[in-house]
Every structure is written in C-alpha cells, then in structure tokens.
Amino acid sequence: MSKKGFFIAVEGINGSGKTSVLKAIQSDLESLSIPYIITEEPRGTDVGLALWNILHSYKVSARTEALIMSASRSDHIEKVVVPAMDAGKHVISDRHAASTFVFQKSDLNFEQWMKLTEYATNKLEPSRVYILDIDPVIAAQRSTARNGISDKFEELDLTFQYTARDRYLLLAKKSDIYKVINAALEPENVAKIILNDLLNILGVTKNS
Ligand SMILES: Nc1ncnc2c1ncn2[C@@H]1O[C@H](COP(=O)(O)OP(=O)(O)O)[C@@H](O)[C@H]1O
Ligand SMILES: Cc1cn([C@H]2C[C@H](O)[C@@H](COP(=O)(O)OP(=O)(O)O)O2)c(=O)[nH]c1=O
Q: CATH no. for residue 31?
C-alpha cells in the first residue's frame, strides 16, 4: 500500500508572508522530488469560493461567519486534502482552522473551536501548523505596498490585528503541532527555517 501524504498548514495575519514563503519553498520541494500540492482556505474549492462571495455579499455575525468558514473547510478537506493525501502527496495549505479561531472570534472559545473543527475536518489534524508571527504594523505596511488596496477581510483595524496575533500565540501554547516562526526575518531565512522543519517531518534528508 502506498504511503499517505502529510497535511501541513501555514498561518499568520494578513501580510505576514504566507504566500511568499510557500512560493519560496516550492523549488526545493521539486528538486528533492517531493510529491506535494499547495492549496488554500477559504477559497480552495468552488464551494469555498462561492461561500467567500456570500461573505462579501451579506453582513453576518461572527458565529455565522465561523460556520460558513467551517463549511468551506469541510469541502476543502473532502475534495482536496484527503484525495491528495490518499494519492501519497503532501498537502500544504495557506490557512486552515486556526484562522477561524483567530478571526471569527466574538464568542468562540478554545473548546467550542475544537468541536467545530473536529466536525468540519472529520478529525483530520495537520502534522504541523507554522504560525508566521509579526508585528501587525509591519504586516500592514507590507500588504499596502503589495496591493495598494485591501479587501473586506484586510480592512480590519490594527487593534483587531493585534488581537489576532495574540490569538495565534495563545493557540500555539495549546499543542506541539504549532510552530511559531519569526516572520520579520529576511524572506530567505523564514523559508529556510520552514523548509528544514518540513523536511524533518517528512523524513527527507537534504544532501547539501
Ligand atoms: N520576510 C519578508 N520580509 C519582507 N517582506 C516580505 C517578507 N515576506 C513577504 N514580504 C512581502 O510582504 C508582502 C505580503 O506578503 P505575502 O506573502 O503576500 O503575505 P500573506 O500571504 O501572508 O498575506 C509581499 O509584498 C511580500 O513580497
Ligand atoms: C480560512 C479563514 C480565512 N479568514 C480570512 C483571513 C483573511 O483575511 C482572508 C483570506 O484572504 P486572503 O486574501 O487569502 O488573505 P491572506 O493573503 O492574508 O491569506 O480570510 C477567516 O477570517 N477565517 C478563516 O477561517
């Protein structure tokens, strides 16, 4: 029987460098012939995209938002993550369940979030979640430089982003699957730290 792939997630506030680091490690994964896919939440499936559009069309409570994000997660797990893992590919997701704990937070405590996540993911937990940790002021400067514009979820004020950072760090204390990465480092160094840890998890030795 072929070996199942690993499931990995990358998290962090907007502008923390998730997309950049994923781009940076791709060539290493390819040169090492590691089978992988990179995917994303909440827009990783057609259903996820449709739900994202709903969130941008209607005003809903944080509770409803958490359920919609969880529905999107469930579809992503069923249609993208599990099939790829079953095919022996490692799945690296740009955002996953931690984002719901951090952003749809009005009355979502850790225990409620765990139950919601277990149901949405059918108890599939990532082997590792990298939390790119950075001062929200620096992240906001990066995002503005990148886009010039921001979308509904990026228009969150700085206080919210500081709370989001704290929520990530709170989550990191709950389990060893979380690894907090200093995302203020140079992009090459952030990528190197993540790649080395990832290869270790995958049991791959780099000959250089
Ligand atoms: N370590 C870094 N140092 C400086 N700038 C960075 C770093 N990582 C990413 N950036 C820049 O910050 C902006 C946001 O990065 P991005 O990867 O799109 O973040 P995210 O996907 O987390 O929103 C981009 O313009 C990117 O080039
Ligand atoms: C997965 C997920 C994302 N989000 C938000 C966080 C982001 O602001 C947005 C995704 O937008 P995106 O443009 O992908 O932002 P980023 O580059 O920072 O990942 O969705 C939630 O609020 N809850 C969730 O469960």
A: 3.40.50.300
